[in-house]
């Protein structure tokens, strides 16, 4: 599983500061999270195959999180995509996209399916054999969700000594790791739990941007493997957080620490800061395993 | 006067192939022509001061000519612009922009004034003391205009021998070049035409993209200093022009030759071509002074 950062800066795009966009690869399912201006160029630069993206999640309708979407959707058509594309986004985005397609007489070459988000409570919005996705209600200047991605459990772990001791034919191994019971050569039924161990804990990823400090998300994201939490400001500018509905690096660290996540990634940095390492340092005061997002950086996790 | 190419490629933006956008500086008036995705980053890279742009001209509502506009308008607000901004564009753009501003509760910090283009005939859309702008009706898959920018005449040329012979006080020189008559020290009236020559011919710039080969634009652009004409294809792919409503490099050359322009600039190259010098070569068969557009290239003209 891996998370590729395409952009992690707030507001205005600049030459080396791309707005929010990420690609999450979870059990082979490739998903785009937010899509600021220039995202399609960033996807090309990271050599991510456009056609593998089946789901796009948009946290909220501020431009730095979605202005790149219409261009990407148009490019999919130019590339003659035919596979379904699902957009999970707040109310309003469908109207914006469809209006732009209409004025250019440019209908998509593929089914474009909008899933409108409007709940103020966490809800399950995607559930397939690879993963599930829940919204994380956030608090920003407009209606905003984070997203919690949970990988589905993989195969059970084969206890090789046990199956060898029972002389079970290798042909059964595949069904055993899928959870099936098995018969020995002499016709004795052996229960699956005696031949396998639980699969390793499934990784999960929580994306939380943009939001004011909101500790009530902690129960939902407790134990998450990887947490991306916005940190637009340093503590020195905390007074700006209430008005703009953003968080500081320290506040992101507190969320990570309370939720007991494995690793915290910081992003959505304000353009006012030149030295971004200060963000890591500030969060580390409360939570040790923290790393800044950076365009092109890949976070692998299992 | 100078024309800065920000992007000159068709359709999908790629790392080094930016969609159409140009900045024209004419008598100190800075104007943006088309605004594909990523234009604001290109403006920054060329160190063009955002606040100096007062007029934006959009040729047509295909994404590669306007998807960067909403981001640029939002950035103007983030930069606390207060000066009026005028957008000259086909019907539909105002609705698109205002819808996007509304969903994000992000009204502009400055007066944003739309001038809707819908005429099928050439019309004068801007006329001030520095220049005039006319539409050039083009023929593309959607309603499309080119734009003809004509600089206003500068000061008349002072005939220095004549004014010195008549012993005219230097204090009058400024009003003489503006076209005023003057009195000699002994009270004799001298007519302006006896003291000045016509100012040098005023430069003009015609922007023609996107369009199928359309020779009926020739009378309007005859004698233009600089002509940008789209050349999406080479002659080898001319069969694609009728369906897609684009031109070849040779067709652009024919327009330039018939209109007797000083220089032809080619652009809007299809992504299928690797060797863009073939475009110049093809057009040169019919018109000698031709040069490819290129991101970051500046064409100076007087």
Automatic annotation (TrEMBL), chains A, B:
Belongs to the RNase Z family. The active site is at 64 (proton acceptor). This is Ribonuclease Z. Homodimer. It catalyses: Endonucleolytic cleavage of RNA, removing extra 3' nucleotides from tRNA precursor, generating 3' termini of tRNAs. A 3'-hydroxy group is left at the tRNA terminus and a 5'-phosphoryl group is left at the trailer molecule. Signal peptide: none annotated. Pfam families: Anti-Pycsar_Apyc1 (PF23023). Zn(2+) 2 binds at residues 64-65, 210, 268. Its cofactor is Zn(2+). HAMAP family: RNase_Z_BN (MF_01818). Zinc phosphodiesterase, which displays some tRNA 3'-processing endonuclease activity. Probably involved in tRNA maturation, by removing a 3'-trailer from precursor tRNA. It is an enzyme of class 3 (hydrolase). Zn(2+) 1 binds at residues 60, 62, 140, 210. The keyword Hydrolase applies. Binds 2 Zn(2+) ions. InterPro entries: RibonucZ/Hydroxyglut_hydro, RNase_Z/BN. Its EC number is 3.1.26.11. It comes from the Bacteria. Keywords: Endonuclease, Hydrolase, Metal-binding, Nuclease, tRNA processing, Zinc. GO terms for molecular function: 3'-tRNA processing endoribonuclease activity; zinc ion binding.
């Amino acid at each position: 599983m891996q998370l590729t950062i395409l952009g992690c800066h707030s507001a205005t795009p600049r030459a080396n500061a791309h707005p929010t966009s990420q690609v999450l690869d979870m059990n082979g399912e490739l998903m785009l999270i937010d899509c600021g201006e220039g995202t399609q160029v960033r996807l090309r630069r990271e050599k991510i195959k456009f056609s593998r993206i089946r789901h796009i999640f948009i946290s909220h309708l501020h431009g730095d999180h979605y202005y790149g979407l219409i261009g990407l959707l148009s490019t999919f058509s130019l590339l003659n995509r035919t596979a379904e594309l699902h957009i999970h986004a707040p109310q309003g985005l469908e109207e914006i996209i469809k209006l732009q397609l209409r004025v250019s007489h440019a209908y998509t070459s593929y089914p474009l399916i909008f899933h409108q988000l409007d709940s103020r409570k966490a809800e399950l919005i995607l559930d397939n054999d690879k993963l599930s996705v829940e919204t994380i209600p956030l608090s920003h200047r407009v209606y905003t969700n984070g997203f919690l991605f949970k990988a589905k459990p993989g195969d059970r772990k084969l206890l090789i000594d046990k199956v060898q001791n029972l002389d079970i034919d290798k042909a059964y191994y595949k069904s055993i790791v899928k959870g099936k019971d098995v018969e020995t050569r002499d016709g004795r039924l052996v229960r699956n739990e005696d031949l396998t161990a639980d699969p390793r804990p499934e990784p999960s990823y929580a994306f939380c941007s943009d939001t004011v400090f909101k500790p009530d998300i902690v129960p939902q994201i407790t134990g998450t493997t990887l947490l991306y939490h916005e940190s637009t400001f340093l503590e020195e500018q905390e007074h700006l957080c209430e008005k703009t509905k953003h968080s500081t690096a320290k506040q992101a660290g507190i969320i990570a620490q309370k939720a007991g996540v494995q690793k915290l990634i910081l992003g959505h940095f304000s353009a006012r800061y030149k030295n971004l390492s200060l963000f890591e340092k500030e969060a580390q005061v409360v939570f040790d395993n923290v790393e800044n997002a950076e365009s092109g950086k890949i976070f692998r996790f299992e």
